[in-house]
Amino acid sequence: GAGVSQSPRYKVAKRGQDVALRCDPISGHVSLFWYQQALGQGPEFLTYFQNEAQLDKSGLPSDRFFAERPEGSVSTLKIQRTQQEDSAVYLCASSPDRGLLTNEKLFFGSGTQLSVL
Amino acid sequence: DAKTTQPNSMESNEEEPVHLPCNHSTISGTDYIHWYRQLPSQGPEYVIHGLTSNVNNRMASLAIAEDRKSSTLILHRATLRDAAVYYCILGGATNKLIFGTGTLLAVQP
Questions:
Q1: pLDDT tens, N- to C-terminus, chain A (117 residues)
Q2: Which residues of A fall below an 8 Å CB-CB distance to B?
Q3: Residue A53 contacts by C-beta under 8 Å, 6 or more apart in sequence?
């Protein structure tokens, strides 16, 4: 496909479980972003990769959240010991070069809806 | 990060123009003005962005005030598929898009 792909589309976890959310960016895109969107709110920035380097992780809410992009393409957002407040839609976006720094638009996936019971 | 202010909601009739306002009085000289929209159950979608001059593309037009403290997204002929939340965002100095709560646009047939 030509767009950003995220899987799974829906994830239900019991409180305390670990989850892993996958993002396949558009092929060749250098920059990759993760956002968290709570119900009724706008997306909030979590972290940013340029190729395999995680250049900004200032938005990760706690050390239970971890993101990686080991080969500079697919990225995984991992949440350990999930809590109810982690329930949200997790969005991934990519851009061809350095994103906003090079005046580019971001391409978003449809997100993974995480529900923690 | 500079903030934007948008109305919570707006209504339009199908095939009529829609003007979505955004105030950004604390904008810096290097901030671009970005507009994204989000349809139900989808991720945000890029609409348009600009720095100082008005911009046009196939989706919309962006009118930027001379002092850059406000801007207006113009949909020339609203369709039912334009019903979405529209976000006005300032960015460029960093690689973060700081979303607010946006404007929920309802389009009536």
A1: 589 999 999 999 999 999 999 999 999 999 999 999 999 999 999 999 999 999 999 999 999 999 999 999 999 999 999 999 999 999 999 999 888 777 789 999 999 999 999
A2: 4, 31, 33, 35, 40-45, 48, 55-56, 59, 91, 93, 98-101, 103, 105-111
A3: none
Q: Is residue B101 within 8 angstroms of chain A, CB to CB? A: yes
**According to DSSP H, which parts of chain B are helical?**
none
Residue B16 C-alpha, separation from nearest chain A C-alpha, in angstroms: 27
Distance CA A46, CA A35 (A): 5
For residues B54 and B5, the answer to whether their CB atoms sit within 8 Å is no
DSSP B76: S
Rounded CA gap, A70 and A76, in Å?
9
The structure tokens 């109810």 sit at A84
Q: Are A100 and B91 in contact (CB under 8 A)?
A: yes
